[in-house]
């Protein structure tokens, strides 16, 4: 669009394809078609959404300048862009001071001495096609030109604004990184839950094994005590058996001496009302065997 002093590309429309978590950037190319220096200033209806670099300057005669328009990152996409009526206004005026402040040029001029050139913004969501963008453009063009009355100066690239912009960019990068980290960590969290469940199972098995070990140790101690008691009982029985054998031998000696004095072999003497020596030994042996069997039954019961 060429309106006497400045030729602007794009002429009437700035198209945005909206995405989340990313700064979007468009360029305006301003060409001074006159033989005089031209000061310009860029205004927008949404100053909080855009940053313009530079938002004002002076273009020497027959020279050009590129103006960057940066859209701040969006946290969420709108359900519809028909309510977005963002517009830009490029004001230009001839000046004799090429090195002066462009804003001061417009402060001392009337509206009749400035030229206004308007650009509308159209927005496309990732799922929208060309037809929706054309509909939004037609709706924007039907808007009355007086809707530019609340125009405000676009954000300039002053040191402060640059710092804000860099902070915003850093914040967006951190947010995007956090989203990627969250998506990446979902699988890690699932693996962590599986490992936690496996650790719980192993811990339970370890507790059960320790309980079985404690029971086995107790049973082993009980068996050791039983063995000690059995050994002690066997020693006592052996001691008694030896005493009975000695007593049996002592009883058999008088009988043997009596038979030898009678002068000849005689049958084994039996005392009335008592057992013979052989019967007594047999009885003691059976008692000993019975006691051992009883101890073994008790041991393995």
Which key features would you list for this structure?
49% helix, 21% strand, MSP_dom, Immunoglobulin-like, 10 strands, 4 helices, 301 residues, rod-shaped, alpha+beta, membrane, 6-stranded mixed β-sheet
How does this structure look, described?
Helix 3 packs antiparallel against helix 4. The chain starts with 5 loop residues before the first strand and ends with a helix. The strands form 2 sheets. Strands 2, 4, 6, 8, 9 and 10 form a 6-stranded mixed β-sheet that branches. A 4-stranded antiparallel β-sheet has the order 1-3-7-5, with no helix packed on it. The chain contains 4 helices and 10 strands. The protein has a domain of 151 residues: Immunoglobulins (Immunoglobulin-like). The chain has 301 residues and is α+β, with helices and mostly antiparallel strands. This is MSP domain-containing protein. Its main location: membrane. InterPro entries: Ig-like_fold, MSP_dom, PapD-like_sf, VAP. It is found in: Membrane.
């Amino acid at each position: 669009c060429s309106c006497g002093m400045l030729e602007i590309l794009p002429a009437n429309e700035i198209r945005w394809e909206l995405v989340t978590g990313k700064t979007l950037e468009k360029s305006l190319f301003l060409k001074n078609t006159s033989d005089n220096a031209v000061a310009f200033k860029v205004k927008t209806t949404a100053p909080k959404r855009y940053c313009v670099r530079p938002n004002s300057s002076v273009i020497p005669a027959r020279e050009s300048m590129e103006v960057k328009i940066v859209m701040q990152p969006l946290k969420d996409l709108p359900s519809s862009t028909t309510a977005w009526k963002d517009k830009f206004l490029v004001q230009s005026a001839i000046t004799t001071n090429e090195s002066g402040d462009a804003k001061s040029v417009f402060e001392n001029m009337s509206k009749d001495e400035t030229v206004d050139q308007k650009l509308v913004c159209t927005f496309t969501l990732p799922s929208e096609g060309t037809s929706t963008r054309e509909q939004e453009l037609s709706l924007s063009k039907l808007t009355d030109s007086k809707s530019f009355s609340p125009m405000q100066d676009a954000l300039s690239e002053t040191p402060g604004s640059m710092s804000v912009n860099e902070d915003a960019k850093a914040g967006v990068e951190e947010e995007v990184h956090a989203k990627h980290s969250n998506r990446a960590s979902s699988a890690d969290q699932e693996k962590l839950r599986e490992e936690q469940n496996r650790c719980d199972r192993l811990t339970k098995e370890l507790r059960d094994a320790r309980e079985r070990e404690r029971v086995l140790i107790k049973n082993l101690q009980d068996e050791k005590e039983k063995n000690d008691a059995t050994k002690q009982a066997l020693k006592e029985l052996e001691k008694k058996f030896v005493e009975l054998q000695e007593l049996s031998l002592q009883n058999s000696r008088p009988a043997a001496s009596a038979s030898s004095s009678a002068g000849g072999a005689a049958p084994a003497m039996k005392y009335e009302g008592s057992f013979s020596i052989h019967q007594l030994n047999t009885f003691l042996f059976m008692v000993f065997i019975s006691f051992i069997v009883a101890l073994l039954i008790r041991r393995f019961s």
